[in-house]
Structure formats: structure tokens, C-alpha cells
Design goal:
heterodimer; A: alpha+beta; seven-stranded antiparallel sheet; 9 helices; 38% strand; globular; B: mainly alpha
Chain lengths: 380, 608
């Protein structure tokens, strides 16, 4: 049985159509990340699952039980859905101690005092902050508040834990620490976790599955590895590559001859197995900087490139290189002593190349790759 | 059989929709709020408009054309265009408008000057000056009129002459003793505190760097004032102007004490005397006029300020303010300010206090000192046997009534403000939230004395399950609560706006019902603003005059109306004893609130 089943979810917030038909199934014990740029509706989806936001159409089934049905205007009470939510702002009640904050939900359920005490302390122990029980939220650091917020969410032993950008208010060091902490917690509790973030790296390191959103629609649901290697659309590829992984983008043209399709790019020619779609359509080839290997010595199958500049950052360096008119960026480990203008030989990892239809943005697959020898001459 | 499931789904959908609507606390509270507002504000105003447009049975005595129950413009015509209109309508309107404008201008000069001195210069004794500036607010405005009379009274209305006459043996002319001049003076002194607080807040939140930036590009001092400072504080100056204008136009206590002896009527006093002489429809027309003037003033304010309102908040929390140096004028300026403020704020208080110990008014000899007016029994030779205040059962009843009214009304008003504020804050994107917001602001347009005039007719007879409230304490509590709604709802809404929605949602996920959320989250988190609202309403109710003067009956006499009774009888000392007691209560409550509740009244007073 799946933990959460979302079917054709449509949500309007203040007369704006935010979610446009989202289908998503989350298995029990999964750590699913909802990833997307700000304003794509991922937080709205989380709030819809929690029941804080009413859906207009579609159904939500949690642990086999229907909790919301748009066509029936049925919305189960948030508290009865067996979910907990950690808010982006933590939403700790400033006038209650840490203990009372965590105990609140149990007090509402009218549990006995000894049991409340025992469960609250167990939950604080799990978050490794038992010593903070008597403090007020205002006296805690951001990381500690974060731990309290999670302790409050897990004290009721929910079947599903929802986290809304929980690390966005922390500094870089604390963020890494909390990432590990959340991963450990997921392992210990075995709870299904749905996690919202706009940070690709966060999504990659923690989740078992990543769901990518754009403009209120789910574009791709995959394991982090698959998402990293084969983004389904150009948009996803670029989003996954943004930040310090600047994606290499080379434009080409697809020509069909007979049953076969050829893609011609400045880097070389490719054959696409299935020749559907328009003849003569534009194609975009993407290649991650880390999939270009630079050699100082010439070898068979390498393309000659000229170093434009070098951006070292300690452990790794970004090298901007020119191949004819094409500008590429390569990412290599260490701090090589390349000079601008130096001639190098680039090896391209063919299996990591992705091709997209320029118009639709959809990925074309599969491709075979070969470089025309003529290209080598062209450079000289 | 085939279409049954479809029908079933249709039914379930509607059932679910109804359940959703009923489970949403916003809808329930909002509906209750709208019902309350409709009954206590919208309906009364509509009803009053209606009564001015129909014949009444009594009208048969005035004209043969009367046809009870049918529509007519007779009343409007009688008020606006007949031989009595000049004295009944136009003269009071002109008087009210001229008093309103003069008071606004004088308070603007006083208040802005003081605000500038305190926030922008290096004048010493800032705390003392601020404290002195608050004192007139804590006192009823007509206390100053009473003090004015004590000084400047002449023998026109009999009784002992004022201090000036007994010292100099020259009777001050009527225009100093009564009418326009003293009314403007006393109202201005009392109301300039609003200007001081509003403009002071704007000035102190304005970042000095804005001025320095202008100086850097070569602007002179006057240019900086004219092009930077003035436009920035203009919105608050305008709001202050309108606030004081509407207050002054509809004030009752001061013109009643200082204007009536020389037949200087304002709309409010004319309204009162029309009510007394049973000209209720004419009074309604006057009420509506007064409301129209207030609405017009506030509309003008909105138009003039428009979008600029946000200026002040944009500059946000000011950084360090560089103070203009007063140089060698520093000490003289401070001395002049403090002395003149002591003269207007403290001296009247002391004089009135001293007077309560004088057996015979105006004679300052040791033999003349007495405690008779405080503690004495009945003595037929003094005030026709009226007992000393603390022995007097009427006083004790009035004291009890005042405390009960102020106590209950302030608790209800504060909690109601929070509840309505909840609808306004959480439903600010829904029609209901906006409607509650606007309707609860409406009493601001209705001058107290007009509202009272409406309530008399409205609650004279029982309606549905609501008994006839006229003559009970309940109606006075109700009118106080309604009149304070604009302030309490704004305060409640603002404080709830600061409590993030997520704090409440976190509790929803924990399974807390709305009542639990209110009790355990909203109430404790908005404690401070609740307390401020409570204190402000309490103080307001303790010195309330125009709102309740028409509604009280001997059984529901309050301290303020008791003083008016004593004034009418000419019992000077007794009046002042009661005044002193009112002031003592107000000041005590204020100090307690500041000390224990950390309530910041200076924010609330200018908050409208």
C-alpha cells in the first residue's frame, strides 16, 4: 500500500491556479523531495497534503484512506490525517517553553502527564536536545529551533512527516549538519518523509526520490541518480545545473534522411534512433562540466580546445575553454596550472550527453555519438 | 438505479460544503460580527434616516398637513429652510465648523512645535515634557473648561466670580469668559496631545540620513525642511488635523459649559437641547449633519493623503537621529516649555483641587478651609443641604455605575476587538473580512452624541428578544463598546496580523480546536495589545461625556454626568471634588497599566 496517492490535484489560491493536475504516488518509507524554483507550487502541494490548503479538484489517499476529494468537497481535518508538518519559519509558539511546544499536541489528545513527559523527552532525545526543555524559543539559535520544530512534529509518531524548506534559514555549516541529522532520523524512524526545497543539492543528497515541479505541474519523478543523469526536459536539466554547476549547452540541427535522424552540432554528429518529429528542427545538446575531461597530450578521439580562463576554488576548478566558436566549461578536481591560451585536449563522456528538442524541450533518446574527424582540422 | 450514485454524490458534495463552512471558525465569528455590526450600527443609522423622512403623530400639532406614517421632507425643510433654521441649524453649524477649524490649527501649531522640540532638538527634560504632554489626555476635556471658568468667570451667570475678578476687581469681558475663545483654547490644549503623539511618531521614525542626504547635495536648512521633512510628515499632520477636527466639531462637554451661558450653540449642544425639548426628528437631522461633516472630513483626508500614507512606515525604524542644536536657547526653551505646560496641565488641576477645600468660593484664607465638600453631612446653609461627596449616596451610586460601566465595557470591547480583529486579519482577502473591517470603523464617523440620540429611540421599546434597554446600565455599556470598536478592532487586527498564520496552523495539525487555539495561543500572544485596549477603553469610559449624557437616568448616573448635574446646580466645589476623584481613578489605572502591564498608551492614542 502506498503512503500517499495524489490524483489530478488542482488547487487555486486566491483565484490563481497554482497546482494544475498533479499525480504523484509516494511509497511507504520513501524520502521524497519536491523540488522546483520558488513559486512553482511545491509548498502549496505540501500544505494540500497536510490539509491546511483545500484542493479544488482531485483526490488524496493517505495510507489507503481517502482524506480529500475535490468533487465531493470533502476535506478531512488536518489533525486526523496522521501527518506532521515542520514549517519553514518553524512556527514555534514563542510564549511556551520547548517542553510545552512539543507537548502541545499530546495535551490536546488528553494523554496522561507521565506519558506526555516520557514521550516529549524521548522526542527531544531523538533530536539530541533534552537539555533545552525549559528554554523559550526566543532563547534558542536557529539550528536549535529547527530541532525543536522537528521534535514537535515527530512526538505524535506520525506516519508521514512533511518538511517545508526546513534548512533554508540556516547557515551553510548548520545546513550540512542538519542534512545528516535528517537522514539519520529517516533511517531511525522509518517514517515516510515529504520534503520541499528549491536547493538541488539538498534534494540529491537526502532523497530516495525527487519530484521536480515547474509552474504547478510535475515534470519528472525519479531517483536522484536518474534525475542527475537524464533530466527529462531542457528546463529540468537547466534547473538541475544552475548554481555552481553551469550546464554546457550546444545547439544543433536535426535532419532526417530515410528512417534515420542525424543531429549535427559544432561538436560532432549524432544519430537518433527514432526519427519522429519535424525534419530540420533545432536541438540542444547538454553536457555537464564534470563530464569533460581535459588532457595535455593529444590522443585519438579528443577534441582540441583553447583555455580561456581558470576559476580555481580549492578542491576543484572550473576551466572555461573554447572549441572554435563553442564555449564550454569543464570541471576538474584539484588546482591545475593551466594558462589562458594554452592548448588542451578535451575528452567528452559520450554516455552523459543529453539531447533535447529545442521547441518542446523534451529529451530525445537514445543517441549514439561519434565525432567527425574533420572537426579536428577545423580548429587549426 | 443508474442515476442514484450521481444523486448521492451531489448530496454528499453539498453536505460536505455546508460542513466545511460551519467548521471554519472564521465564518462563524464573521457571521456573528456582521450580525452585531448590522444591528448596532447599520440598522440604527438607516432607522434614523428613515425617521427624518416620515410624519410623526406629534407633528399634527405643528401643521395640519401632517399625515402620520407617510413620507415627507417636512422635517428637513423645517431644519434647513424655515424661520427657525438660522438659530436651530445654520448658526450651530457655522459655530461648530469655525471651532473645529480653529482648534485644529491651534493644536497643530502647539502639537507640531512640541513634537519637533522633543524629537529633533537637543532640548533637555524630554521625558518630563512628554509626561506633561500626556496629562491633558488623561483629564476630561471639560475639566479644563471648569478650570477656565474658575479663573475667568464673570458675574454674568451669577455665583462667585472667578479668581481673576476677585484678585484684580475687574470683570473680564464676556468673550474671554464664555463662548468661542475659551472653547477653542481649552479644546486645543486638550487635543494638541494627539498632534504631539502622531507627528512625534512620524518625526522620530524618520531617518536622519534622509535629511543628511539632502544636505550633502547642498540643500539649505529651510530647503531640507520644506522639501524633505515636511512632505514626509505631511500624512501624519493631515490625519492629526482631521482627527482633531472631527473630535472638536462633535465635542459636547466643553461647549456645554462654556458656550451655553452666552447662547453659543454648536451642533452637539443644539442636538442635546433639541432632544431635551422633544424635537427628536430635528435632533436626528442635526445628527446626520454632524455625521456628514465627519465623513466629509475623513474622505477629504483619504483623498489628500492617498498613497502617500505609506511614506512614514517606509522609512521604518530610524537609525540614530541627529538632533538640531538649540545653542544658547537650549535652557530658556526648555524652561519656557516646561513652565507653560505646567501652567496648562498642572496648575488647573491644583487650583480645582484647592477649591474643593474652600468653604466659600474665591476666598483664600485659612479660616475658609474645610473638608465639608468631601466628608461633610447635610447642611441646609450650604448648597441647599447637598451632602459632602463621600457621604452622598448619589455619589456612591455614580461611582459604582462608572466603575461597572468602564470595567465591563473595557473587557468586552477589548475581547470583541480581538475577535473581530481575528476576522479582519485572517480574512483580509475575503469579502467578509473586509466588510467587518469597514463596518467596525463606521462608528468613527458617528459623533458620540448622534449615536446616543439614535440609541435612545432604538432601544426605547423591546425588539424581538432584546428588552427595552433605555434606562439600564447595559445600554451605556453597549454604546461604549460600539463607539470604541474602530479603535479596538484596529488594535486587535494589528496584533493578530503580527501572529503568523503558521503558529495557528501548527496547532491545527496538533488537533487543537479553534477555542483551544484562541485560549492557548492567540490570547496569550496578544496579551499586551489586549491590555492596552482595555486600559484605553477604561480611561475613555471613565471620562466619557458626550456619548452617555443623553442616555443616563437617575438610576444610571455616572461620575461624569454627576459633575454636570452639579455644574447645572452651581455647586462648584462638589463638581470639582467629583472631578478630582475621576482624575485620581484614571491616573491610578494609567500608572498601574504602565507599571505592571508595560502597556504603551502613547501608541494607542494616536492609533486611529
Amino acid at each position: 500500500m502506498s503512503a500517499i496517492q495524489l490524483k489530478q490535484i488542482h488547487v487555486n489560491v486566491q483565484n490563481k491556479h497554482i497546482l494544475k493536475g498533479v499525480d504523484l504516488t509516494i511509497e511507504e518509507g520513501d524520502f521524497v523531495t519536491l523540488l522546483g524554483p520558488s513559486g512553482c507550487g511545491k509548498t502549496t502541494l505540501l500544505r494540500t497534503i497536510a490539509g491546511l490548503q483545500k484542493l479544488n479538484e482531485g483526490t488524496i489517499v493517505i495510507a489507503g484512506k481517502e482524506v480529500a476529494n475535490g468533487s465531493m468537497s470533502f476535506h478531512m481535518d488536518p489533525a486526523k490525517r496522521g501527518v506532521s508538518l515542520v514549517f519553514q519559519s518553524y512556527a514555534l509558539w514563542p510564549h511556551m517553553t520547548v517542553f510545552d511546544n512539543v507537548a502541545f499536541g499530546l495535551q490536546i489528545r488528553k494523554l496522561g502527564k507521565p506519558e506526555i513527559r516520557q514521550r516529549v523527552m524521548a522526542s527531544l532525545d531523538k533530536m539530541r536536545i533534552p537539555e533545552l526543555a525549559d528554554r523559550y524559543p526566543g532563547e534558542l539559535s536557529g539550528g536549535q529551533q529547527q530541532r525543536v520544530a522537528i521534535a514537535r512534529a515527530i512526538v505524535t509518531s506520525p506516519e508521514i512527516l512533511l518538511l517545508d524548506e526546513p534548512l533554508s534559514n540556516l547557515d551553510a555549516k548548520l545546513r550540512t549538519e542538519m542534512r545528516a541529522e535528517l537522514k539519520r532520523l529517516h533511517g531511525e524512524l522509518g517514517t515516510t518523509i515529504v520534503y520541499v526545497t528549491h536547493d538541488q543539492q539538498e534534494a540529491m543528497t537526502m532523497s530516495t526520490k525527487v519530484a521536480v515541479f515547474f509552474g504547478g505541474e510535475l515534470v519528472q519523478v525519479d531517483t536522484p541518480r536518474e534525475l542527475y543523469r537524464h533530466p527529462k526536459t531542457l528546463q529540468v536539466a537547466e534547473f538541475m545545473g544552475s548554481g555552481d554547476h553551469k550546464l554546457n549547452r550546444v545547439e544543433g540541427i536535426c535532419r532526417s534522411s530515410g528512417n534515420e535522424c542525424y543531429i549535427r552540432t559544432p561538436l560532432g554528429d549524432f544519430r537518433v534512433a527514432e526519427g519522429d518529429g519535424d525534419p530540420d528542427r533545432g536541438v540542444v545538446m547538454t553536457l555537464k562540466p564534470e563530464d569533460i575531461v581535459l588532457h595535455e597530450k593529444r590522443k585519438e578521439g579528443l577534441i582540441p580546445v583553447k583555455v580561456k580562463d581558470v576559476h580555481p576554488s580549492g578542491a576543484e576548478s572550473l576551466i572555461r575553454i573554447d572549441y572554435g566558436d563553442v564555449q564550454l566549461t569543464a570541471r576538474i578536481l584539484g588546482d591545475p596550472e593551466f594558462e589562458p591560451g594554452q592548448l588542451l585536449y578535451a575528452e567528452i563522456r559520450e554516455d552523459r550527453i543529453n539531447m533535447y528538442d529545442k521547441q518542446t524541450g523534451c529529451r530525445l533518446e537514445p543517441v549514439t555519438f561519434h565525432i567527425k574527424p574533420a572537426m579536428e582540422e577545423l580548429h587549426r | 438505479m443508474l442515476h442514484r450514485p450521481a444523486l448521492h454524490a451531489w448530496q454528499t458534495r453539498w453536505l460536505n460544503r455546508c460542513r466545511n463552512a460551519l467548521r471554519n471558525p472564521l465564518n462563524l465569528i464573521g457571521a456573528a460580527a456582521l450580525l452585531f455590526l448590522a444591528y448596532t450600527i447599520v440598522w440604527p443609522v438607516l432607522h434614523m434616516i428613515y425617521t427624518t423622512l416620515v410624519w410623526r403623530t406629534q407633528d399634527a400639532r405643528l401643521t395640519a398637513a401632517a399625515d402620520p406614517g407617510h413620507l415627507t421632507f417636512y422635517h428637513w425643510q423645517r431644519v434647513l429652510a424655515s424661520d427657525i433654521s438660522w438659530s436651530l441649524f445654520y448658526k450651530p453649524v457655522v459655530n461648530a465648523l469655525s471651532v473645529g477649524l480653529s482648534v485644529s490649527v491651534v493644536s497643530m501649531v502647539l502639537g507640531c512645535g512640541l513634537a519637533w522640540l522633543v524629537t529633533r532638538t537637543d532640548i533637555p527634560f524630554k521625558k518630563t515634557i512628554t509626561f506633561l504632554a500626556i496629562i491633558p489626555y488623561l483629564l476630561p476635556s471639560w475639566m479644563l473648561s471648569q478650570a477656565w471658568l474658575t479663573f475667568f468667570k464673570n458675574s454674568k451667570i451669577g455665583g462667585t466670580p472667578g479668581i481673576l475678578q476677585s484678585l484684580l476687581h475687574v470683570a473680564p469681558p464676556d468673550w474671554i469668559s464664555y463662548g468661542y475663545v475659551p472653547i477653542v483654547m481649552t479644546l486645543s490644549i486638550h487635543d494638541s496631545v494627539y498632534f504631539f503623539l502622531l507627528v512625534g511618531a512620524a518625526l522620530s521614525s524618520m531617518n536622519s540620513q534622509l535629511e543628511e542626504a539632502a544636505e550633502m547635495v547642498g540643500a539649505g536648512r529651510l530647503q531640507v525642511l520644506r522639501r524633505i521633512v515636511f512632505p514626509l510628515v505631511l500624512p501624519s499632520v493631515l490625519s492629526g488635523f482631521i482627527l482633531i477636527f472631527t473630535k472638536a466639531v462633535s465635542s459636547y462637554g466643553v461647549p456645554a459649559l462654556l458656550g451655553t451661558p452666552v447662547n453659543f450653540y454648536m451642533i452637539s449642544t443644539m442636538l442635546y437641547s433639541s432632544m431635551r425639548s422633544r424635537l427628536t426628528t430635528e435632533a436626528s437631522v442635526l445628527s446626520l449633519t454632524l455625521m456628514l461633516i465627519s465623513i466629509g472630513a475623513i474622505y477629504l483626508n483619504q483623498r489628500l493623503i492617498g498613497r502617500r500614507r505609506s511614506y512614514v512606515t517606509v522609512s521604518g525604524k530610524g537609525s540614530a537621529v541627529t538632533h538640531t542644536s538649540l545653542g544658547r536657547w537650549k535652557l530658556p526653551a526648555a524652561a519656557a516649555t516646561v513652565i507653560s505646560m505646567v501652567i496648562v496641565a498642572v496648575v488647573p488641576l491644583l487650583v480645582l483641587l484647592l477649591q474643593t477645600f474652600l468653604l466659600k468660593d474665591g476666598s483664600f484664607s485659612a479660616a475658609n478651609l474645610t473638608l465639608h465638600y468631601w466628608l461633610g453631612g447635610s447642611d441646609p446653609s450650604i448648597n441647599t443641604g447637598e451632602k459632602g461627596v463621600l457621604q452622598n449616596p448619589i455619589f456612591l451610586l455614580a461611582l459604582k455605575n462608572s466603575l461597572v460601566i468602564a470595567g465591563i465595557a473595557s473587557v468586552i470591547a477589548a475581547v470583541m476587538g480581538l475577535l473581530f480583529g481575528y476576522v479582519v486579519a485572517r480574512g483580509k482577502n475575503s469579502a467578509m473580512g473586509r466588510l467587518v473591517d469597514q463596518l467596525s470603523f463606521f462608528p468613527y464617523f458617528i459623533p458620540g452624541i448622534s449615536l446616543a440620540a439614535i440609541y435612545i429611540t432604538m432601544f426605547a421599546k423591546p425588539v424581538l428578544f432584546i428588552p427595552a434597554l433605555y434606562g439600564t446600565i447595559t445600554i451605556i455599556i453597549l454604546i461604549t463598546v460600539v463607539k470604541e470598536l474602530p479603535f479596538t478592532v484596529k488594535a486587535g487586527g494589528a496584533s493578530l496580523m503580527q501572529i503568523g498564520n503558521e503558529l495557528e496552523e501548527a496547532a491545527v495539525l496538533g488537533g487543537a480546536s479553534w477555542f483551544t487555539r484562541f485560549r492557548r495561543l492567540l490570547l496569550p500572544l496578544s496579551r499586551k495589545s489586549l491590555l492596552s485596549a482595555f486600559i484605553l477603553v477604561f480611561i475613555g469610559a471613565m471620562k466619557e461625556m458626550e456619548l452617555i449624557i443623553m442616555l443616563v437616568t437617575p438610576r444610571t448616573e455616572t461620575l461624569t454626568t454627576l459633575t454636570f448635574y452639579y455644574v447645572e446646580k452651581g455647586y462648584e466645589q462638589l463638581t470639582n471634588v467629583v472631578l478630582m476623584i475621576i482624575i485620581a481613578i484614571v491616573v491610578t489605572v494609567y500608572l498601574l497599566a504602565v507599571k505592571f502591564g508595560k502597556a504603551d498608551l502613547t501608541k494607542g492614542i494616536g492609533g486611529q
